[in-house]
Design brief:
- The complex is a heterodimer.
- By secondary structure, chain A is mostly beta strands.
- Chain A has no helices and 12 strands.
- By secondary structure, chain B is an all-beta fold.
- Chain B has strands spanning 4-7, 10-13, 19-25, 31-38, 42-51, 54-57, 65-67, 73-78, 87-94, 105-106, 110-114.
- The chains are: A mainly beta, B mainly beta.
- The interface between A and B is medium-sized, with 22 and 25 residues.
Chain lengths: 113, 115
């Protein structure tokens, strides 16, 4: 069974608008971590934001915020004020157990001028 | 600080050949990982290591072996390459510190083609 699900293979957003990338997860652990990474066309993996399962507040990092809904097991990434440089693949990942990570299949975001 | 480096960056192998991919990190990280990335599949964990001298299987370990003889190095070996192993390989590491979650630091990737 897929533990990290990203249902949007591709997304478009107009420059300067906000966009939400969906991520749902499945785990029976009480302690887990959720991450978002960006992979531009150059190929490197860039860490964006982290949310712990016990964190009561949603994580924010600059223009990135994570909409964490624990009961729904969702950890959506919100990018505000999209920029052309935000065009990339975005991966949701979950740390389960002792530092073992599972990645989703990714969402390709294209920002339109 | 070089971070996480991978050698080589590109490689073409013929079916049946062997090779070793080297991952090195200079951040004194305890945990190291090898992933493969295929189109539409995201990153899948091949093997990982929680410390020098210890390794464990991930989601897709078949056809690969690993070794962690030194804390800073994590080697991924292909004994007899197959076209199904054509992929981009990423190494990653984390520093596990006193209750604070750490993100994975990734290398730049190795693009391997098996013909």
């Amino acid at each position: 069974a897929q533990k990290i699900t990203q249902t949007q293979p591709g997304m478009f957003v107009q420059e300067k608008e906000a966009v939400t990338l969906d991520c749902t997860y499945d785990t029976s652990d009480q302690s887990y971590g959720l991450f978002w990474y960006k992979q531009p066309s150059s190929g490197e993996m860039i860490f964006l934001i982290y949310q712990g399962s016990y964190d009561e507040q949603n994580a924010t990092e600059g223009r990135y915020s994570l909409n964490f809904q624990k009961a729904r097991k969702s950890a959506n990434l919100v990018i505000s004020a999209s920029q052309l440089g935000d065009s990339a693949m975005y991966f949701c990942a979950m740390r389960e157990g002792t530092y073992k990570y599972i990645f989703g299949t990714g969402t390709r975001l294209k920002v339109l001028a | 600080n070089a971070g996480v480096t991978q050698t080589p960056k590109f490689r073409v192998l013929k079916t049946g050949q062997s090779m070793t991919l080297l991952c090195a990190q200079d951040m004194n990280h305890e945990y190291m990982y090898w992933y493969r990335q295929d189109p539409g599949m995201g990153l899948r964990l091949i093997h990982y290591s929680v410390g020098e001298g210890t390794t464990a299987k991930g989601e897709v370990p078949d056809g690969y072996n690993v070794s962690r003889l030194k804390k800073q190095n994590f080697l991924l070996g292909l004994e007899s390459a197959a076209p199904s192993q054509t992929s981009v390989y990423f190494c990653a590491s984390i520093f596990v510190a006193g209750g604070r979650e750490q993100e994975q630091y990734f290398g730049p990737g190795t693009r391997l083609t098996v013909t």
